[in-house]
Amino acid sequence: MLDLSQYQSLGAALRDALERWPDEVCLIEDDRGREKARLTYQQFKEAALPLAKALQDAGLQPGSRVAIVMTNQSKWLISAYAVFCAGGVLVPLDFKLTPAEQQQLLKHSQATFLIIEGFLWRNLAGAGGVKDTHVRTVLVTEAPPNTELAGAQRWEEFRASGEPTFVERRRDDWASIVYSSGTGGRPKGCVMTHRNYLQQCIALTALYPFWPGVRYLSILPTNHAIDFMVGFIGPFVCGAAVVHLRTLRPEFVREAFARQKITYVSLVPLVLKNIERGLRERFAGLPLHKRLALSVLIALNRQLTRRRQNLGLSRRLLPDVHRAFGGELRAIIVGGAFSEPATLQFLYDLGIPAVNGYGLTEAGTAITVNDLRPFRADTVGKPLPGMEVKIIQPDGDGIGEVAVRSETVMSHYLDDPELTAQTITDGWLLTGDLGRLDTAGHLQLFGRKKNMIVTAGGKNVYPEDVENNFEGLPVKEFCVFAAGYLWPERGPGREELLIVLHLEPGQSFTSSLRQEVVARNRRLLDYKRLSGYVLWEEDFPRTASLKIKRDLLAEQIRRKLVRDQGVVPL
Amino acid sequence: MRTMQQTLEEILNLAARHFNVPREQLSPDDDFFKKLGIDSYQALELLTRLEQHFNIELPDYEFQGVTDFRTLAERIQSRL
Prior knowledge:
The complex is a heterodimer of chains A (570) and B (80).
Chain A: H1 10-20, E1 25-31, E2 34-40, H2 41-57, E3 65-69, H3 74-85, E4 89-92, H4 99-109, E5 113-117, H5 118-126, E6 137-141, E7 153-154, E8 174-179, E9 189-193, H6 194-207, E10 215-218, H7 225-236, E11 241-245, H8 250-259, E12 264-267, H9 269-284, H10 288-304, H11 311-317, H12 319-324, E13 331-334, H13 341-349, E14 354-360, E15 365-369, E16 382-383, E17 388-392, E18 400-405, E19 412-413, H14 417-423, E20 424-425, E21 428-437, E22 443-448, E23 453-454, E24 460-461, H15 463-468, E25 477-482, H16 483-486, E26 497-502, H17 511-522, E27 530-535, H18 550-560, H19 563-566, E28 568-569
Parallel strand pairs in A: 1-11, 3-4, 3-5, 5-6, 6-7, 10-11, 10-12, 12-13, 13-14, 26-27
Antiparallel strand pairs in A: 1-2, 8-9, 9-19, 14-15, 15-16, 17-18, 18-21, 20-21, 21-22, 23-24, 25-26, 27-28
Chain B: H1 4-18, H2 32-36, H3 40-54, H4 69-77
Helix pairs in contact in B: 1-4
């Protein structure tokens, strides 16, 4: 690995990585079980430098902002390096946003260049393109031949001969503007410096190292802070490879693990849950004698790896399971939302560590990660090296707002000093999340501060904490709210907790389901108990990382249901 | 060569069978996420089934933002 403490910028570190491992593979593109492209570091450099030169010839200056709107693929990373090489500032945008949302962020970021994938440009151009933004040059990748490009140029042809001028940047110069979750309303453009990324990379690779030959499967969108770090910067500064898939259909993702011999992957809890379900179904389909033998081996593995992970041993005990994952898998990193401890434990017992992490864009990706010493399914791990975490104004149970201080914390929100001052005070980033540090230094999360409910008796209740008690409830999805949050006009005095249930298609609220809800409710401390339920027939709105958009769901419920008619007492 | 109507009909039949929903409950302009009660992950499964049925390849991106059976049928018809 490069010694990142010696570097001033991401561009300089990447430049040296390309020189250091010219013959190592850095990128693999896989499409439906067929390998579509494979690039070495040398080939990556040969693709990026003529692009960097063309960008400079087209007027890209140090500090110019370049937006990228693409799915995960090699051209994303090639473009990003070309931008860093020319001293530009990257603006990664979510390709899943609507054209209107993309236009809003393009305008807010003041990007002057846009690099965008063909089908996304088709949608954006159809909605008015970039006419109300600062964008002057649009480069479109993979546009079909003979397509009218509405003033854009083809990325593949946008090349210039000659060496680009490599522009040195300092550690505190801006590297990127990353928009954190939440669209509509006030855009939150996190200005990240080169220092933020370099320090984060040092911390993460200390726990989960990369080296030549390691393969990272990039599934989470690269515009997200986590994939940008562990699906680009981390592997590249260590000479490792990134695998991109052109389709994220479950069957091809499963196959990619085995075929590409994946070492690491980051996932959201929903996908992890699907992996668990798939494995459980396969185990249930085994003949009885094999099923029994498997249970014995799983129990043995659990016992032998309770204190410390032992990959070699787990692979020998459960070879078929590990072979299905390619035999090289070292860790599945899970972030983005709360994972069910039972799912994490199930996979760990098979010798597949699915480790919880916690982070936010403003903090420069990860704040805590489980270090597997020992494995804990009930926390989001310990603070990464160089990360100071404290709990502000803890209550009697030690729970308070999580605050972070580190060199990885963003510089500020773009053009929003007011929001910046509210979010970073005295050098501490206020996360808005409620947590507690236990005696082992592990962080446990309880929910969002703004979702917290103070009961009439002065007790704090966190809806997410109550939800944990209903994990595995046989419904499609559920969410806990304070009734006063859903229908605030009722005023104080009736603060009750409700569970909103979205049933599976064709499922009805049977007496056995009701009994299960009641039984689980009884297990809660009295002040945390639900007083009723609401049946909801639509999918919960979710963020790109699949977290429930509570505000929006509450608004939908409020619009459609009246409290006295919508709530059924338990 | 199938007509658009035939393609649509085959999609509705296949979706009803695969997700165990009575065929008569599905209409061309229905939001298939809501009507079938599926998430984006299961929608990808549906695409795979449709590929196998029509013997074509459907890039994921073609279906970004598509939520109703009729638009789905139009996208498939253009590739037949």
